[in-house]
Amino acid sequence: MNATASFIRRAVPSQVTRLREFGFRLESLIVLALLLIVMGSLSPLFFSFTNLVNIVLATSTIGILALGVTFVIGSAGIDLSVGSVMALAGVVGALVVNDLGLPWYFAVVGSLAAGAACGFVNGVVTHYGQVPAFVVTLGMMGVARGVALLLTDGQSIYGLPEALLFLGQGRPFGIPVPAIVFILLAFGLHFILVRTRFGKYAVAIGDNATGARAMGIHIGPHRVKLYMLSGLMAGVAGLLTMARVNAGDPTAGMTFELSAITAAIIGGTNLFGGRATVAGTLIGALIMGVLQNGLNLLAVPTFWQQISIGIVLVLAVWIDQASSRRSE
Fold it and tell me: How far apart are CA 102 and CA 105, in angstroms?
């Protein structure tokens, strides 16, 4: 893989430079292309329109979660709770319209608020409580999932308003609404990451927290905002998933945190902070979506799929660290 990437860099240096300036990682693009070729050759259904739509929908959910995780990881943090927070957000949105009888747009507010609130707790306890982010977000993973199950008695909440279902099932111009939301969020967060103080401060904190503090960056409030952003993205993912399946499911998003983190790292975000790329995360999410979809088409058992995702995560971190050492 490294030899192929080096050959392409020598052959088209200007194009590669442009890709890297935008945040794309050449190795990730090569992996995506190879995956498409392999899956397409193994399954005749892979490139069917219906299956491509399924890939887009799966990628949108993982990708939205990965966008928020990208900012947290870039700041040398971690968020293991996004899958559970996604489920809780969907449950809260469904309860708002079903049990409280409020208009559909209150479900949107409820889902986003639930996600942001979980992120706020993660950020506050991590920074001001001086508890490692791994422990805090692992705890939130259990708490959010438990609260979602408690609120629903372990049952899915069915029957949502048509206006709300459009957010998950609508297809203006033939494009699923979740995919549109994902692309719009990716563009917006890419701009925030590379063009605003919020994004640059996140990377600065991840690179050198002491130096960032010396520069006058208020690390505590900024970390809280970063975790709130991650929680907010989980809220968006929960809202769209709820609208797509017409139910608030307390078991939704199981192991999605692993896929989201893997997507961000594959895309080029450094697991140990100091480097983040939203554009790369988009490609990483596509890789995860294509991989999972292809394995489903090939009837690979779910537990083998989880093993493959775990292996991909370890390989992604290993390749990233090896690349970093070579560039030093």
Answer: 8
Domain ranges of the chain: 60-270+303-320
247-248 vs 157-158, strand pairing mode: antiparallel
Neighbours of 188 (CB within 10 A): 12
What distance in Å separates the CA atoms of residue 111 and residue 242, rounded to the nearest whole number?
10
Q: How far apart are alpha carbons 113 and 292 in whole angstroms? A: 30
* CA pair distance 312, 31, nearest whole angstrom: 11
Rounded to whole angstroms, how far apart are CA atoms 306 and 59? 16
Whole-angstrom Cα distance, residue 280 to residue 276?
Answer: 8
Express the helix, strand and coil content of the chain in percent, nearest 5 each.
Answer: 80, 0, 20
pTM listed for this prediction:
0.88
pLDDT in tens, the chain (328 residues): 455 455 444 544 444 445 454 455 677 788 888 889 988 898 888 999 889 888 888 899 999 999 999 999 999 999 999 999 999 999 999 999 998 889 999 999 999 999 999 999 999 999 999 999 999 999 999 999 999 999 999 999 998 999 999 999 999 988 899 999 999 999 999 999 999 999 999 999 999 999 999 999 999 999 999 999 999 999 999 999 999 999 999 999 998 999 899 999 988 899 899 999 999 999 999 988 888 888 888 888 878 878 887 887 787 777 766 766 665 5
